[in-house]
Amino acid sequence: MRIHRYFLFVIIFYACGEKKLPILGERKVIEREKEGKIVVDTIYHSIPEFSFINQDGQKVTEKTFEGKIYVADFFFTTCPSICPKMKQQMLRVYEKYKNDDRILLLSHSISREDSVPVLKSYAKKINIETSKWHLVTGDWNKIEQMAKSYFVGVQEDPNEPGGYLHNGYFVLVDKQKHIRGVYDGTNPKEVDKLLTDIDILLDEK
Amino acid sequence: MKLFKSKILLAILPVLFFVGLLVGNLFVFRVKEQGQVLYETHCSGCHMEQGQGLAQLIPPISKSDWIANNADKLACIIRYGQQGAIIVNGINYNQPMPANPNLTDIELHNLINYIVRNFGNQTAKRSLGQIQQDLNNCK
To answer: Which of A95, A205, B9, B91 is the most buried (most CB within 10 A)?
Structure first.
């Protein structure tokens, strides 16, 4: 019996040690010379530089997220279909990590109508702190490009309710700007997984 | 005589079996009422599954004083949408609600009666005639 218990512990420890989130996206393997030797490097997909404006009119760039883990998504304030559900779920993430300054949230608006004051009033209504959760707007084409690098599809479509079509994904980005998970932000179970994955990522050295 | 009784029993058993099967099926495959299906399709995205709404952005459907006092305005709002401020349970909401022009009068009837009798609301049901009257009075 005691031996069994011992094995169980070993298995549990092993399982815990093994848990590591994958790095998503295309990767390239390149060879380069370093001090006369051939070194092989793997280049992972990573989030490129950006510059947008948040609900307080402040500039938000990739530097805002330096050394932080963050969750990104795409929405717009007048979106009648999936956004309220996404925001309800993102608020769960917000509440859980409100006082943890290793985590930030970044929501990109894909509507041309969402000016800074519109985002400000939206932020006020869902009662969030700018320093924790940036709602950003900017050049539409640049936002669309950013969406692509987060693996989120975004397009203008006059036939859609609200005028835009987009995925409700939450994208988990690590300190090195690598994407470590993509979750359906309208599905509470997937957001449960996001919350556990954030904890796993926080423990990563 | 004994033989006769057991024959009756043999005849009744399969009948009982099938009746049981039928009742079981009705339970397992019970049909959701149309109002609930419509709510899940057209409303729950914003007003949420339990009708709780979202923060100070989207007003709740559940235990709503506004619904209790304005059941005659529901048909218009659902069909033509809502603009401007609205106070629900003491909180001021100001987020446009989109129109649902594709819902028929009967669908509106089923949806409204689902809303006013669920989510903790206990407002009187509205007849189809009343709802058509409401629709005539839309601004």
So the answer is: B91
**A162 touches B at CB < 8 Å:** yes
* Closest C-alpha among B52, B120, B110 to residue B78: B110
Q: Sign of the C-alpha dihedral, residues A79, B82, B76, B124?
A: positive
pLDDT digits (tens, 9 = 90+) for B1-42: 666 777 887 888 888 888 888 888 877 777 788 999 999 999
Query: Is the CB of residue A148 less than 8 Å away from at least one CB of chain B?
Result: no
Q: Which of A82, A126, A162 lies at the smallest CB-CB distance from B57? A: A126
- According to DSSP, the β-strands at A59-61 and A27-34 are unpaired
Say which of B46, B57, B98 has its CB closest to residue A125.
B57
Amino acid at A94: Y
Q: Which domains does chain B have, with CATH numbers?
A: 33-136 (1.10.760.10)
The stretches of B29-119 forming alpha helices (DSSP H) are 34-38, 44-47, 65-69, 74-80, 105-117
pTM here is 0.79
Say how many C-beta atoms besides its own lie within 10 A of residue A57's C-beta: 12
**What does DSSP say about strands A133-136 and A103-109: parallel, antiparallel, or unpaired?**
parallel
* Residue B95 near chain A (CB below 8 Å): yes
Question: A24, A128, A148: which is closest to A74 by C-alpha?
Answer: A148
Please count the residues of chain A.
Answer: 205
Helix (H) or strand (E) holding A135: strand A133-136
| Side chain identity at residue B37, one-letter code | V
Contact across the interface for B45 and A80, Cβ inside 8 Å? yes
Domain boundaries, chain A: 46-203
Residue contact A88–B98, C-beta within 8 A: no
The ipTM value here is 0.72
pLDDT digits (tens, 9 = 90+) for B81-99: 999 999 999 999 998 899 9
CATH number for the domain whose boundaries are A46-203: 3.40.30.10
